[in-house]
Amino acid sequence: MTAEATLDPHPAPPLGEGWRDLLAEGRAPVLALILLGCWVVAADSLVTATIMPSVGESLDGYAWFGWAASGFLTGLVVAGASAGWLAERIGLRAAMMLAGAAFAIGCALSAAAPGIALFLAGRVLQGCAAGWVCCLIYVVLALLFPGRLLPRVFALCTSVWGVATLVGPLLGGLFADAGMWRGVFWLFAGQAVLFTAASFVLIPRSAGRDSITALPAKPLLLLAIGITAIATAGVIDHLTLAIALGATGTALSVAALAADRASGNGLVPARSGPFPLGTAYITYFATTAAGTAFALYAPALLQHRFGFGALEAGYLVAIEALAWTAASLSVAGAGEAWRSRLIVAGAASILAGVTGLTLSMDGGGLAALAVAGALLGAGFGLSYSFLGQRVIGSFGDADRARGSAAIGTARNAGGALGAALAGIAANAAGFGQGLSEANFAWVAWGAFGSGIPFALVGLIGAIRLTRARVQAEAVPGISESA
Questions:
Q1: How far is the C-alpha of 253 from the C-alpha of 221, rounded, in Å?
Q2: Cα–Cα distance measured from residue 107 to residue 110, given in angstroms and rounded to the nearest whole number
Q3: Does 228 lie in the same domain as 138?
Q4: pTM score, two decimals?
Q5: Is residue 98's pLDDT more than 60?
Q6: What is the pLDDT of residue 469?
Q7: Which residue, 243, 256, 342, 362, has most beta carbons within 10 Å?
Q8: Is residue 16 part of a domain?
Q9: Residue 283 pLDDT
Q10: Domain presence at residue 367
């Protein structure tokens, strides 16, 4: 499949025909495998957040809550960064099986943990596996699905996350209330084994294997240290140390990117043709960073301000996921003329949502907060499917695995930095000492306001992508892959 064939220059087929085409030619089982991978990663992270109080009580590990999240996040980003290289080195099928097996082992470690140390080790391994799964899903899409179908596949993946957002807290609550938090991890270990077996059966043995190059160890090492520093900065209460760690981690992550580019055949491929690949990755990075704080801090803020219970607050936050799913499904069949507009409209909606949350959390009503959360989610739903389609379509065969996997890396890294900066800002406002009437507004402004600059960068990137595409199409000989 050539780069030009990855994106279809013809208008999208009618809605019903497009969805039927998605399941044609034997694609249904592979699609089911992708959705299973999305479910395992999404539900595991959401359910774990719900049961952590029970874990802390059982393992005497309340002081380690932040480190559980930090370890998972570090594994997610660093392992995800190697996913494209891994698929090229050992083949997509073997890489998917390795990811599933690692997830199963990580869940088993957490389930059987007699103390907090082994539990944390399991969470780090789960983070690594989740990073591989998230990024390898993009590789599967790039190698096994025609470009014209990608918006619909992305929409279905988003739907799985939406379902997990609704079901996850309830599932976690049921296990926690029954005193069976270990059962959650055994459940997901079983699902990971199913994912591993299905990968062996459904993924072609030859898919993805295209490289004998050595692993770019220096970029990965720098990234590992940098992301560890960033993730730690977001969970400690010492402001000066948190700022120092955040700055150091960001510098090391930038150094990792520079070292990767200098390697000549790194984890992230260089610019492919006239498409502004770097701008696309920055747009992913910035918009993800902008929206991270909502899921992290909105539940606590809503509970304090409106007296909600944890489940009520969690389901109000789920408005973001529902809006993301609804928007993604509604525009999945959009024709080419609308796709660039939707990328820009989505980035603008993310900026409006983050700004609305910042302004309304303290003085606005519940309806204003719900609208802002919906705008945030809808922004991702409107833009991400077509942004991913453009990025994947810009690669030739040699770079498609690494370039597609790098989408997940950009998103994961953006989430890590966005969470860290929101944490630093919220803790500087006193969040670490507990919410009160005196610090509530400052915590809200710090947590959500820190995302506004990222959202602005994301909007600028989306506009630049659209302009670059218009300019490319004006040049004779530039194909749809631009």
A1: 10
A2: 5
A3: no
A4: 0.84
A5: yes
A6: 60
A7: 256
A8: no
A9: 95
A10: yes
> What confidence tier does 450 reach under pLDDT thresholds 50, 70, 90?
very high
Mean of per-residue pLDDT scores for the chain = 84
Q: Smallest Cα–Cα separation from 259: which of 209, 233, 224?
A: 224
Provide the angle, in degrees to the nearest 10, between the axes of the packed helices 83-90 and 400-428.
150
The helix (H) or strand (E) run that includes residue 244 is helix 239-262
Average pLDDT over residues 204-215: 70
Domain final residue, candidates 228, 244, 264: 264
Residue closest to 34 by CA, chosen among 381, 410, 481, 408: 408
Claim to verify: residue 71 and residue 196 sit in the same structural domain = yes
Contact 279, 464 (CB under 8 A): yes
Nearest to 258 by CA among 278, 272, 288, 279: 278
Among candidate residues 399, 482, 429, 419, the one with its CA nearest the CA of residue 77: 419
Return all residues near 275 (Cβ < 8 A) that are at least 6 apart.
Answer: 390, 391, 394, 468, 472, 481, 482
Residues 409 and 399: their CA atoms lie apart, in Å, by 15
In-domain check, residue 253: yes
Asked if 339 contacts 9 with a C-beta cutoff of 8 angstroms, the reply is: no
Over residues 340-361, the pLDDT tens digits come to: 899 999 999 999 999 999 998 8
pLDDT at 7: 40
Is the pLDDT at 211 greater than 70? The verdict is no
Please give the tally of structural domains in the chain: 3
